[in-house]
Amino acid sequence: MEKKTVQLLTREPVPAWWTRLHTFSQLGCVFQAAEYFLPQASVVLIPRKQLTEFRKEEFSPSKAYILVDDGWTAQNLKRALATLKGALFLDSNQDTSEVSKVVQVALARQTERERHGELMQMMRFQNRQIEELNRGLEQTVKERTLHDADSRKASQKNISRMREIIGFIKELAQLFDISDLLPLVRRQVKEYHSLEAPLLYVPRGEDFGDLYYIRASQTIRTRVRGRWAVSARIRVNEAEDSQFLANAMGRPFAKVLRFPLITVRHQKDPSRSPLLLFEHNMQTRELEPLVDSLSEKLQPVSWALDRLVLEQELKSTSRDWEMTFDELSEPIAILDHDGRVLRSNSHWREDFRAVLHSKNQHIRSGARLYTIEKYPIRMNESAPPLSWVVYLRDETRSRQLKSQAVQVEKMSAIGQLAGHIAHELNNPLTGIRSLSQVLLTETASESQVNKDLQEVERASARCQGIINNLLDFSRGGLEHKIEIMDLNEIARRTLPFLKSATGKFRSDIQLSDGELPVKVEPHLMQQVIFNLVNNACQAMKEQGEIGVHTRISPPWAILEVKDTGPGVAEDLKDRIFEPFFTTKAEGEGTGLGLSLSRDFVRQFGGELELESEDGHGSVFRVRLPLEIKL
Amino acid sequence: MKVLVVDDEALVRLSLKRAMEKRGHQVEEAEDGKQAFERWPLFQPDLVYLDVLMPRLSGPDLLKTLGANSRATAKVVLMSAFTGEYDLEKAKSLGADLFIPKPFEDVFAIAQLGEDLVRG
User: Fold this and answer.
1) Of A325, A398, A328, A388, which Cα lies nearest the Cα of A358?
2) Contacts of residue A475 in chain B, CB cutoff 8 Å?
3) In this structure, which of A254, A583, A597, B117 has its CB flanked by the most CB atoms within 10 Å?
4) What is the extent of the structural domain holding B83?
5) Domain boundaries defined on chain A
6) Superfamily assignment of A483-630 in CATH?
7) A435: which chain B residues are within 8 Å (Cβ-Cβ)?
8) Are B82 and A423 within 8 A, CB to CB?
9) Is residue A160 within 8 angstroms of chain B, CB to CB?
């Protein structure tokens, strides 16, 4: 064990008692004298007079102090104690053994103090260790707590991601049109700045499809032709994709991300799946999280698209149906059982509702005649009808055609009959005329017989003429040949047939000088004249004058048929040209004469007009374009 | 020349007969194709006026039935009131040389046409 140091603090030569103490070796320590506190000293002896030179703080608690004086008074002792508590006292006048005892006590006290200090140190160390443990524990607890918070945060993040997807699905479900899909997808990727707006490709056939893209916040659809290999996997930066889009859009394309949208309908044949496309400029490592986050949203997009495409197809089918319905040229409507119109096309008129509960088979509306057709709509065969489809078939034209056909048939029968009659008459007539010619050569030219024979010859010639005209007229019913002909000639050939009709009226025939070449079917034109003259005669009933005038009024050839009958009332002027319109009694007229006549004249590029003043007769005027001379 | 007039209409036969006789020709008549079929080989005419539509045997049928020998060198003028069905081409395909539609305008013109035909 190391020897302890005992120091005497002094500025003067060491006193005799100090030296004597050295010799008192049984203390087993080192003695040293110095003017200042030696750090190694365990016990310091301080002369009382020097005590005032120190401040309290300069005394170390690990040392033991002994105050030395050669004549202690009670007052000195008190003052010293106040300055340095716990110090020992030594009277330098005492025996060396006494001094030694005091030093010995001081040493023992210092040793005790030292040991106490070690203990304290140990305790402090242990305390520190405990503190550290504590701190570690705290750290652990803190870390635990932090970790907990982190995992909570992570699961919250998961939840919010799920919420986001659910929200996305909800939004998808509310879409009405494919064109709204792209803006929605674009919002999902708006945080990726180097990703361009999405495009959508929907294959429609073997080598064409619709490409949807966004321009100026509008979704635009364009039909794209060309084969494009579609597969069920995600493609990244394929040159083929950039090329295809560049061709379709007419501009260069950067790298392309291609996601197939495997819809239910395309599960078996992914080569017809729609594609979601992004043009981008991203690094490969940036792509991975993007592809991950997008992949989860692809399935809902596929479903939505599936639905939208289906709806689109349904819509277009029903649109086709609606258009067909609306475009029908005849009135059609769907009525409920009370006759309320559920849907109707543009030809339907409100007053047609009445037909639903009417027993009539026909309804007339203006100039048109409709056959009523009603079809009940029932949920099943035994159920009462929920609604009715009412369709009005326009019979006007078909009736007109039927009448025309009857007319043509009649004409052809008359033609055949006239042909036979003409033949039967022609033979004897040829004989009569020829024999007259022979006999004329055998009689004296001034004789009565000769004159009579001339009459016979002329009469038979006239008969031949009439028969020829009749043959031409009747043959017209069968042959339809447009030719350029003199309107006057047609009139001249027709008028003899009307002799019986015009018989009791005065007639005023004024045909223009020279020819009136017109391009017509002569027999149809004859029918027109026949009809007009016949009508004029019927209009006059008792007596009057019938006029047939022709004239030139470039560029027209005009034929007018005038009568002095009662004329046509103002409100009937348009209607008399309508098919089936007639003022005659049942069975006397078909109501087709004027309608057909106008049809024929219009067919030849002309017009048939009526000029009439109530009570002052009528003028029917035929205008036909003049042709170049025959 | 010898002229055969075949027509079921008596007045036509009579007028043609008279007209031809006045021009110095020898004329025989037949009322229909059947009669003509019997008389043609015996009479051996130079010119025949032949009506198309006749009872028993029509003009075209007569031409078909008549052998080349029987017909000999006779020129045939076919006549018909059904002008629509016949024309010169049709008549020639039936073996006739000329077609005249009825009714005639002038019987002497018909006589002249026949004479011209025989004389070439």
Assistant:
1) A388
2) 84
3) A597
4) 2-119
5) 5-130, 178-322, 332-394, 395-479, 483-630
6) Histidine kinase-like ATPase, C-terminal domain (3.30.565.10)
7) 11, 14-15, 18, 107
8) yes
9) no
| Minimum-distance CB partner of A437 among B10, B13, B107 | B107
Distances (CA, A) of B59 to A250, A511, B6, B7, B93: 85, 44, 8, 9, 13
Query: Residue B5: what pLDDT?
Result: 96
Q: Which residue of B has its CA nearest to A436?
A: B15
Q: Which two tokens stand for residue B3?
A: 């002229």
Domain A395-479: top CATH class: mainly alpha
ipTM of the complex as predicted? 0.88
Rounded-to-integer distance, Cα A601 and Cα A594, Å: 10
Interface test with A, best of B7, B12, B22, B83 (most A CBs within 10 A): B12
pLDDT at A592: 66
Domain covering A178-322 in this structure, CATH number:
3.30.450
Report the candidate in A88, A28, A80, A89 with the shortest Cα–Cα distance to residue A50.
Answer: A80
| Distance separating alpha carbons of residues B96 and A376, to the nearest angstrom | 72
Q: How far, in Å, CA of A354 to CA of A364, rounded?
A: 12
- Of A608, A629, A630, A628, the C-alpha closest to A620 is A608
Q: Is the pLDDT of residue A572 over 70?
A: yes
- DSSP state for residue A368 in the 8-state scheme: E
Residues 6+ apart with CB under 8 A from B116: none
Question: What is the C-alpha separation between A539 and A618, in angstroms, rounded?
Answer: 9
Burial class of residue A537 in the structure, from the number of CB atoms within 10 Å of its CB (0-12 exposed, 13-18 middle, 19+ buried)? buried
**Comparing A4-8, A148-152, A471-475, B37-41, which segment has the lowest mean pLDDT?**
A471-475
Cα separation, A307 vs A264, in Å, equals 10
Does A433 contact B104 at a Cβ distance shorter than 8 Å? yes
Q: Is residue B26 over pLDDT 90?
A: yes
Percentages helix, strand, coil for chain B (3-state, rounded to 5) are: 45, 20, 35
Q: How many domains is chain B built from?
A: 1
Annotate A48-108 with DSSP letters as a single string.
Answer: GGGGGGS-GGGS-TTSEEEEEESS--HHHHHHHHHHSTT-EEEETTS-HHHHHHHHHHHHH
- How far apart CA A24 and CA A95 sit, in angstroms, is 11
* The pLDDT value given to residue A409: 73
A428 inside 8 A of chain B by CB: yes
Res. A202: pLDDT tops 70:
yes
As given in the structure block, the two tokens for residue A229 are 């290999």
Q: Within an 8 Å CB–CB cutoff, is residue A438 touching chain B?
A: yes
By CA distance, what is A424's nearest residue in B? B81
The confidence score (pLDDT) of residue A589 equals: 58
If you measure CA to CA, which chain B residue comes closest to A438? B19
Place of tokens 């490969």: A284
Average pLDDT over every residue of A517-537: 86
Beta carbons within 10 angstroms of residue B93's beta carbon = 9
For residue A107, give Cα distances in angstroms to A5, A7, A35, A315, A380. 9, 11, 21, 113, 126
Residue A24's alpha-carbon distances to A20, A28, A106, in angstroms, are 7, 9, 16
Residue B4 pLDDT grade (very low, low, confident, very high; cuts 50, 70, 90): very high
CB A495 within 8 A of CB A462: no
Q: What Cα–Cα distance (Å) separates residue A241 from each residue in A181, A234, A245, B25, B74?
A: 21, 12, 6, 106, 95
Instruction: Answer yes or no: are the C-beta atoms of A20 and A96 closer than 8 Å.
Output: yes
Predicted local confidence at residue A588, as pLDDT: 56
Q: For position A316, what pLDDT does the model report?
A: 81
Q: Give me the phi and psi of A389, to 5 degrees please.
A: -95, 120
Average pLDDT on B49-71 reads 86
**Contact flag A431-B19 (C-beta cutoff 8 Å):** no
Write the CATH number for B41.
3.40.50.2300
Residues of chain B with Cβ-Cβ distance to A426 below 8 Å are: 81, 102-103
The CATH class for the domain spanning A5-130 reads alpha beta
